[in-house]
Amino acid sequence: MSSQEQLIARAEFVRRFNRFYTRQIGVLHEHLLESEFSLTEVRILYELAHRDGLTTSDLCRELGLNAGYMSRVIAGFEKKGLVVKQRSETDARVSELALTALGRDTFEPLNVASRNEVMEMLDRLTDAEQQQLVDAMAQVNGLLGESSASYVLRDPGPGDMGWIVHKQAVLYAQEYGWNAEYEALVAEIVAKYIRDYDATSERCWIAERDGTPVGSVFVVRHDAQTAKLRLLYVDASARGMGIGHRLVDECLRFARSAGYKRMILWTNSVLTDARRIYEKAGFQLVEEESHHSFGKDLTGQIWARDL
């Protein structure tokens, strides 16, 4: 199948999912349709209930609604005493919208009903299935650029090591065409870390955003004076957030506290994004050698820096 045919097939899958999800949302909101408000009107009330300083233009832009329709909805809300307009404190030319006390009292039962419908849907799933669904939705948000820009670094938990092997293998197969030899190498590195782990001299971090792992890195013992950085990974959905730089910085900080005097790492010249991170962190190229690995002709590199 050509790349164009793959793109068409993926587009059709997204369209099928959109139709499925639209039907699910329709079922969830059947009760809300029994109220005097349309689903779009409830969405507008939701935004006004949860955010201050919104204007009509803000709502049009963020909800993708026509300005004329939005003006009619807001006028209707004003007439019912649900919404008031007030001058912006920062720009007297701008009118901001706010829910009145009646507006909040009107919205709250709708909000509770909507939440209860979703909870009822989730309650049909096991705890594991619920988390799987939430994680999948978080991944969609991340890939489409709508998730939180924050993340946390944490210790690895159950399943994380398997995740690292999987994500590394998929990434380098998709982006660089590396074969299963690389997956075998990663699995060996991870297995050795688990089997021989020494908390005083080795460490692994998982970067997590919106409850989903998006990055990882290891520090392992090379010798008594030297730490080795291994398997730096940042998911495509989380690139540009500085996670790679943060993970490397944590490696350096840990290595110093563990008493190491030097840190090294092995990479390949084709991994330009990773090399830029290493250079910015103070690593210097000290050795390189051509080799044939993972089904490709590559140039292996050793980078190092003093601590």
Automatic annotation (TrEMBL):
Q: Which InterPro entries match?
A: Acyl_CoA_acyltransferase, GNAT_dom, HTH_MarR-typ, NAT_camello-type, WH-like_DNA-bd_sf, WH_DNA-bd_sf
Q: Name one GO molecular function term.
A: N-acetyltransferase activity
Q: Where is the HTH marR-type domain?
A: 10-142
* A Pfam family this chain is assigned to: MarR_2
According to the entry, every stretch annotated as the N-acetyltransferase domain falls at 164-307
Alphabetized, the UniProt keywords read: Transferase
- PANTHER family noted in UniProt: GNAT FAMILY N-ACETYLTRANSFERASE, LD18367P
Record protein name field: GNAT family N-acetyltransferase
Q: Give the originating organism.
A: Paraburkholderia guartelaensis
